[in-house]
Design goal:
The protein has nine helices and no strands. With 197 residues, it is mainly α. The protein starts with a helix and ends in an 11-residue tail after the last helix. The model has no long low-confidence stretch (mean pLDDT 81). Helix 1 (2-23) runs antiparallel to helix 2 (27-47), helix 2 (27-47) packs antiparallel against helix 3 (51-75) and helix 3 (51-75) runs parallel beside helix 7. It has a domain at 90-120.
Length: 197
C-alpha cells in the first residue's frame, strides 16, 4: 500500500513537471522542470527495483545532458517571441502524438488491472538486474550501444561549438608563431658608451 501511494505521488509530480516543461515561458525554467522530471522518473525506477537505470538516468541525463542543455539555453540568444509563433501551428500534431501516447499507456495499465498481461516471474534472491542488463547490452545490442555513444558525443561537441564565441579583444598564445621565432627577433644588442663622473 505504501509503495502504491508513493508511486502515485511521484507519478503526479512527473506529469506536472512534464506539463511545466512545455508550458514554461522561460527556457531556463523549462530545463529545470525537465531536471525535476528526470529525478522523479529515477525515483519511480527505484520503486520498480531498477536501480541501475535510475542511477544512469541521474548521472547521464541530469548530470551531463541537462547541464549541457542548460548552458546552451543560457548562452544562446533565443528569441522567445519567434519560438512561440509556431505553437498553434504545431498544436494539432502535438495533440495526435499525445493522444497516441495516452492510448498506449491506458492499454498497458488496463492490461495490468484486468489481468490481461502475464504475471512477472519471481526472481531468485541473488538476481542482479544490473548484471542482466549489462549482459544484454554488451552482447545483443553492442552495436546499438556504441552508435548511441557516438551520437551523444557528437551532440556534446555540437553544443560546445554552438556556444563557443571568440572575442576579438582577447589575447592568446600562438604556438606556431612561438616555434618559428629566431634569436634575432627577440634579443637586440645595444652598445652604450660608459658614463663618466
Amino acid at each position: 500500500m505504501y509503495e502504491a501511494a508513493v508511486f502515485y505521488v511521484f507519478g503526479s509530480v512527473l506529469v506536472l513537471s512534464g506539463l511545466a516543461v512545455i508550458t514554461a515561458r522561460n527556457p531556463v525554467h523549462g530545463v529545470l522542470f525537465l531536471v525535476l522530471a528526470f529525478f522523479t522518473a529515477s525515483a519511480i525506477w527505484l520503486l520498480l527495483r531498477a536501480e541501475f537505470l535510475a542511477i544512469v538516468l541521474v548521472v547521464v541525463y541530469v548530470g551531463a545532458v541537462m547541464v549541457l542543455f542548460l548552458f546552451v539555453v543560457m548562452m544562446l540568444d533565443i528569441n522567445l517571441e519567434k519560438v512561440r509563433e509556431g505553437f498553434w501551428k504545431n498544436l494539432p500534431l502535438a495533440l495526435v502524438v499525445g493522444g497516441i501516447m495516452v492510448a498506449e499507456m491506458t492499454a498497458v495499465l488496463a492490461g495490468g488491472y484486468f489481468d490481461l498481461l502475464p504475471r512477472p516471474v519471481a526472481l531468485p534472491a541473488e538476481y542482479s538486474n544490473t548484471k542482466a542488463l549489462g549482459r544484454v547490452i554488451y552482447t545483443n545490442y553492442a552495436y546499438a550501444f556504441e552508435i548511441a555513444a557516438v551520437i551523444l558525443l557528437v551532440a556534446i561537441i555540437a553544443a560546445i561549438a554552438l556556444t563557443l564565441r571568440r572575442r576579438k579583444d582577447s589575447r592568446g598564445q600562438d604556438p606556431g608563431a612561438q616555434a618559428k621565432v629566431r634569436r634575432a627577433d627577440r634579443v637586440r644588442m645595444v652598445s652604450m658608451p660608459a658614463e663618466k663622473e
